[in-house]
Design a protein that fits this description.
Order of helices and strands: EHEEHEHHHEHEEHEEHEEHEHHH
Number of strands: 12
Shape: globular
Distance between the termini: 44 Å
Number of helices: 12
Low-confidence stretches: 350-355
Oligomer: single chain
Bound molecules: nicotinamide-adenine-dinucleotide
Strand content: 15-25%
Mean pLDDT: 94
Radius of gyration: 20 Å
């Protein structure tokens, strides 16, 4: 039997990170979670595994080299899954500095620390070590409505400070493989959705604004198209990429579920009309409001996931409809999680729309 693998997850208190942590603990891994606990983090998302002997949490900044070195030394991980990032495009437009700090400098810091750590390993531990870098479809820029989806070979053309900072981090990760031989694997995924997503992003924002009787804002005419990926499907893809991905390669992860923002919001309204009808029975669609578009708003992203399907045997198990149904039901049933997030951390900020 193989020894239990200990995985260092950065950003494990965020939306995807916490899903990955719960997934890995459920699969029998030991997990060390390194997270700065920014506004986007919630330790409540980890309540179900917080007391597990297979889980440890360190509050630390990936830009803090001493803290990162100490965690490597004390925890001796077998692999890293790097998810820590500033992630909200609107925030990157208002205030790009934290995006440069965390996404670029922080990734550099982690790579440099990982390289030093990896070079000192020996035997099987050195050979099997992996640095999995989690990135986004947004590094490829925007597609026209008739363009073929992005492949792993699509040129990088980021549009926002967020996507430019993620593109920079991808280049650094590749360079640490090409130059120093650090065994990296990259993934670029499409828009994730599902339980525990911070309610500034489109899907939870639409659900919660709708049930609280607020306007449900949509940028422009709602024509922007995204390729939606259920977060649990993504967590499975990341485990596979870490265990079976080819070193130095990148894998696109997408749900084969392209929809316009308007379709997404209308589908949510339809599900809510059924699961929690408004008094008077009129549809939640009546709360939809179109708001002026944001600058640099990419028209369309779409991922071609054929490589990870073919080479690693992954495929999305949720359709957009089944995933949205689960997600809406989860938000309706888990007010304990989102109510404090929405009231305390989000107080005074605009209830804008996202991605
Ligand atoms: P998130 O914003 O929900 O969580 C990010 C986490 O990183 C938070 O817990 C935060 O506290 C932590 N963090 C931020 N700065 C840090 C720092 N300096 N040091 C340590 N921790 C820090 O993000 P998410 O949606 O879960 O995204 C995770 C990763 O996946 C990111 O790298 C993101 O770029 C990528 N991604 C996300 C999506 C999506 O749809 N959510 C799509 C494509 C790619």
């Amino acid at each position: 039997m193989l020894p239990t693998r200990r995985i260092l997850v950065t950003g494990g208190a965020g939306f995807i990170g916490s899903t990955v942590v719960r997934h890995l603990v459920g699969r029998g891994y030991e997990v060390v979670n390194l997270d700065k606990l920014t506004y986007a983090a919630s330790l409540d998302s980890l309540r179900s595994i917080a007391d597990s002997p297979a889980y440890r949490f360190f509050q630390a900044d990936i830009c803090d080299r001493q803290a990162v070195d100490r965690i490597f030394k004390d925890e001796s991980p077998d692999a890293i899954m790097h998810l820590a990032a500033e992630t909200h495009v609107d925030r990157s437009i208002d205030s790009p500095a934290p995006f440069v700090d965390t996404n670029i400098i922080g990734t550099f810091n982690l790579l440099d620390a990982a390289l030093e750590y990896w070079r000192a390993l020996d035997g099987h531990k050195r050979a099997s070590f992996r640095f999995l870098h989690v990135s986004t479809d947004e590094v490829f820029g925007a597609l026209g409505m008739k363009d073929a989806p992005f492949t792993e070979l699509s040129p990088y053309a980021p549009s926002s400070p967020y996507s430019a900072s993620k593109a920079s981090s991808d280049h650094l990760v590749r360079a640490w493989w090409m130059t120093y031989g650090l065994p990296v694997v990259l993934t670029n995924c499409s828009n994730n959705y599902g339980p525990f997503q911070f309610p500034e992003k489109l899907i939870p924002l639409a659900i919660l604004n709708a049930i609280e009787g607020r306007d449900v804002p949509i940028y422009g005419a709602g024509e922007n198209v995204r390729d939606w990926l259920y977060v649990d499907d993504h967590a499975r893809a990341l485990e596979l990429a870490m265990t079976s991905g080819e070193i130095g390669q990148s894998y696109n992860v997408g749900g084969r579920a392209e929809r316009s923002n308007l379709t997404i919001v209308e589908t949510i309204c339809k599900i809510l009309d059924r699961l929690r009808p408004r008094s008077g029975r009129s549809s939640y669609r009546g709360q939809i409001r179109f708001v002026p578009d944001r600058p640099g708003h990419d028209l369309r992203y779409a991922m071609e996931p054929a490589k990870i399907e073919r080479e690693l045997g992954w495929s999305a198990s949720e359709t957009l409809e089944s995933g949205l149904e689960k997600t809406v039901a989860w938000y309706l049933e888990n007010e304990w999680w989102w109510r404090p997030v929405r009231e305390q951390k989000y107080a005074g900020e605009r209830l804008g729309t996202a991605r």
